[in-house]
């Protein structure tokens, strides 16, 4: 069995990333955990994504004691720097599968001074590579959302067979919640959005679901068991995980995969250096729990009219805030390019004493863990949800795409840790709705109730992330599998 100090005989894992940078970051943080336990990892991705990762978090690709190697693939025919995430994920197999196959074959034949790979980890949107890796070695999907959306995705072929999907959103609003085997009933408009409506996105997620069900050896989930214990228990029972007849060897919680440790609030084993930012200097001068942080992630954007309403609502609330602003998605190529041109006229001057506008990267984890932060206005992407819980910060929920409506419903209706900004299934929020929601969270008794509820989630998260918690046990169990597979490869 490989030891921590002997790299040549240590287990060697292939990690195949996807074109989604926000997926690659937690995946690489998990790689760091494996590195710290003596596991060698080769990370494979296209040049464009490697370049972006180096610009955002160069330390992620630095490796732990030389146990991480990076293979940079060509971007593939037809790639342009202007490709958006939907194009990149939709074209990934076509553009890079040949390079990936050659790379994996080469690693199997010679990994220099490392043992041949004994396992493959694949990002959710690199599921197509299961056809390359599964015949050669156990292959796990790295699922960066929560366990509940995973459960919903795995039921997609059943929903299709029952004629429930696809459907138009206008039809879905009239329907009742749909029963699921592993999660509570779910209204169709709370489904993962691209599964619901017909189109390329619907077809792609059906392929993803079938690839996981038919080819994956298991799934590693960016959450802690304690937050979603009922879902994990139901998944293990429904799919008979670990049984000889099951295709899944394990479905394991391995999160939270955050740049900072939720236990020590110091640099994690990954050692990712997060530089101090001017925003944090400003935040340090604000009263306790007085600042609302607003960010809709690295992909989602709002319309021009919605940006104006949001800005006016924030202004009317009279609360301190940090707002990460991105250009509206309906901005024409020759449209307004300066910040003041797509925010309300005079807005930046009027709020300069109590608000900070950020147009680039923001140190989100540090902001959410700062004592001056009292609320998070979020799109409910899973990484953001976990980061907010880690910081013990209640939320205003504004889901936009993917599984975010599922996350929002859980936060609002089950956990009681967030408020909805928009009514029902509306897509647009007025300035009055924004003002009311912000005041309710930051100034009223309702906000205190949300803080109490998020504190319970905080305790569960920390319990699972502790040294003796479920995540440590699961990662230990997974590394033990890696050693067994590695020994088997050696004996063969």
UniProtKB/TrEMBL annotation:
One of its GO terms (molecular function) is UDP-glycosyltransferase activity. Keywords: Glycosyltransferase, Transferase. Its EC number is 2.4.1.-. It comes from the Eukaryota. InterPro entries: UDP_glucos_trans, UDP_glycos_trans_CS. Gene3D superfamilies: Glycogen Phosphorylase B (3.40.50.2000). It is an enzyme of class 2 (transferase). Belongs to the UDP-glycosyltransferase family. This is Glycosyltransferase. It comes from Ceratodon purpureus (Fire moss).
């Amino acid at each position: 069995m490989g030891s921590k100090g002997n790299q040549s005989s240590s287990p060697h894992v292939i990690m195949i990333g996807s074109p989604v940078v926000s997926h690659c970051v937690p995946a690489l943080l998990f790689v760091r955990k494996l590195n710290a336990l003596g596991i060698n990892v080769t990370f494979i991705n296209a040049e464009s994504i490697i370049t972006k990762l180096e610009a955002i978090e160069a330390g992620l690709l630095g490796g732990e004691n030389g146990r991480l190697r990076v293979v940079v693939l060509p971007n593939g025919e037809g790639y342009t720097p202007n490709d958006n995430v939907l194009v990149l994920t939709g074209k990934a197999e076509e553009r890079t599968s040949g390079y990936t196959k050659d790379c994996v074959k080469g690693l199997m034949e010679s990994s220099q001074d490392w043992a041949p790979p004994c396992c493959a980890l694949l990002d959710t949107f690199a599921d197509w590579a299961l056809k390359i890796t599964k015949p050669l070695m156990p292959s796990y999907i790295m699922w960066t959302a929560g366990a509940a959306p995973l459960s919903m995705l795995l039921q997609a072929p059943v929903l299709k067979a029952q004629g429930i999907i696809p459907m138009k959103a206008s039809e879905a609003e009239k329907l009742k919640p749909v029963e699921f085997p592993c999660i509570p009933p779910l209204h169709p408009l709370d489904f993962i959005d691209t599964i619901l409506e017909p189109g390329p996105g619907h077809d792609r997620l059906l392929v993803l679901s079938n690839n996981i069900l038919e080819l994956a050896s298991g799934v590693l989930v960016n959450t802690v068991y304690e937050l979603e214990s009922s879902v994990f228990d139901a998944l293990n029972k429904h799919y008979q995980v670990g049984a000889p007849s099951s295709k899944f060897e394990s479905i394991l919680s391995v999160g939270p995969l955050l740049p900072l440790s939720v236990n020590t609030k110091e640099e994690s084993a990954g050692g990712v250096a997060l530089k101090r930012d001017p925003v944090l200097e400003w935040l340090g001068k604000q009263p306790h729990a007085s600042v609302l942080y607003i960010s809709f992630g690295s992909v989602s954007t709002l319309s021009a009219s919605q940006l104006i309403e949001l800005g006016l609502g924030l202004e009317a609330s009279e609360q301190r805030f940090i707002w990460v602003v991105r250009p509206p998605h309906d901005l024409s190529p020759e449209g307004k390019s300066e910040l003041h041109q797509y925010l309300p006229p005079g807005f930046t001057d009027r709020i300069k004493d109590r608000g900070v506008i950020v147009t680039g990267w923001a140190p989100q984890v540090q902001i959410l863990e700062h004592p001056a932060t009292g609320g998070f206005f979020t799109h409910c992407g899973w990484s953001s949800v976990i980061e907010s819980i880690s910081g013990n910060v209640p939320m205003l929920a504004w889901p936009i795409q993917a599984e975010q409506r599922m996350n929002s419903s859980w936060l609002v209706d089950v956990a009681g840790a967030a408020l909805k900004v928009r009514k029902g299934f509306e897509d647009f929020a007025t300035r009055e709705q924004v003002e009311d929601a912000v005041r309710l969270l930051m100034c009223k008794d309702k906000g205190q109730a949300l803080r109490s509820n998020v504190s319970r989630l905080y305790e569960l998260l920390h319990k699972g992330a502790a040294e003796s918690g479920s995540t440590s046990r699961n990662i230990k169990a997974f590394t033990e599998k890696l050693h067994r597979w590695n020994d088997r490869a050696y004996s063969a």
